[in-house]
Amino acid sequence: MRILPVPCLSDNYAYLAAADGRREAIVIDPSEADPVVAALEREQLRLVAIINTHHHLDHVGGNEALRQRYGDLPVYAHASDVGRVPAQTERVEEGTPVEVAGLTFRPLHVPGHTMGAVSYCVEDAVFTGDTLFIGGCGRMFEGTPEVMHASLSKLGALPVHTRVFCGHEYTVNNLRFAETVEPENEAVRRKLAAARAARERGEPTVGSTIAEELATNPFLRCGEASVRARFPGPTLPDVFAAVRRAKDDYR
After folding, report:
1. Residue 92's closest CA among 104, 72, 112, 77?
2. For the chain: N or C, fewer Cβ within 10 A?
3. Which residues lie closer than 8 Å to 197 by C-beta, 6 or more apart?
4. 93, 125 in Cβ contact below 8 A?
5. Which of these, 96, 99, 61, lies nearest to 79 by C-alpha position?
6. Which residue segments constitute the domains of the chain, with CATH numbers given?
7. What is the 8-class DSSP label of residue 31?
8. What is the pLDDT of residues 121-146, one digit of tens each?
9. pLDDT digits (tens, 9 = 90+) for 144-154
């Protein structure tokens, strides 16, 4: 499977995914149409479907323009997002695979950032939208700490080799915050240095792994003694909520 990150807006990523040896592509979270069209033409791919992780405009803003250009493409999003995702044609539910263009996407319902948020597992990758970032997680616009922590735990339980493709280029700032949570975590230092170097080269930082996130992402490490010492709480969701509040205030 080929995965091509497509930078959109100021810091978003859409993604093109294509099965090996095929020219048909699926776009995940097209914030806007023009960068996606340019990438399709550059790679000589044919768009056959749109998949959305959640309803926010910076993830669905290109849906209608892409359908106008390429025809009545199927648009997949969570069943609860009908009426909120532009041009949605298909209702996604966890447990029902999405099969398109030789790829099988396994939806995971991960409410918290929004209540209809979905991450999509395909082969050795997961597209996490704004639920799990590299080194961080999304804000809770519609969910509670309990709901969001459960969703992140679901993602953290994926096979450790799973590659993580998220919705924004927030990695350097996320890892700077992670360093304040665990100043002695050498894995965070190494990953932050690598992320800074990638950005200096003009390269994306996406394509982390679940193993790397379990070692460096404070929102997946709420059970670690080093995190709980700084953010004590009676339950893991309480610890998560405290870390999330600190990140909200971090500059």
Report:
1. 77
2. C
3. none
4. no
5. 96
6. 2-249 (3.60.15.10)
7. S
8. 999 999 999 999 999 999 999 999 99
9. 999 999 999 99
> In the structure encoding, which two tokens stand for residue 172, read together?
């350097």
Return the active site residues. Answer: 54, 56, 58-59, 113, 130, 168
Check whether 113 is labelled as a binding-site residue.
yes
Start-end of H helices in the chain: 33-43, 57-60, 63-70, 145-156, 171-181, 186-200, 210-216, 225-230, 236-249
CB 164 within 8 A of CB 245: no
d(C-alpha 42, C-alpha 239), whole Å: 46
Q: Measuring CA to CA, which residue among 203, 167, 137, 207 is closest to residue 27?
A: 167
Predicted confidence at residue 21, as pLDDT, reads: 93
What is the mean predicted confidence (pLDDT) over 88-103?
A: 97
Residue 55 marked ligand-binding: no
Residue 21's region, left for phi above 0, alpha for psi from -120 to 50, else beta, is left
In which residue are the tokens 């093109």 written?
Answer: 16
> Does residue 124 have a known ligand-binding role?
no
What does the pLDDT look like over 162-203, one tens digit per residue?
Answer: 999 999 999 999 999 999 999 999 999 999 999 999 999 999
pLDDT for 225 equals: 97
Residue 199, pLDDT score: 98
Q: Who's near 179: CB < 8 A, 6+ residues apart?
A: 185, 188, 189, 192
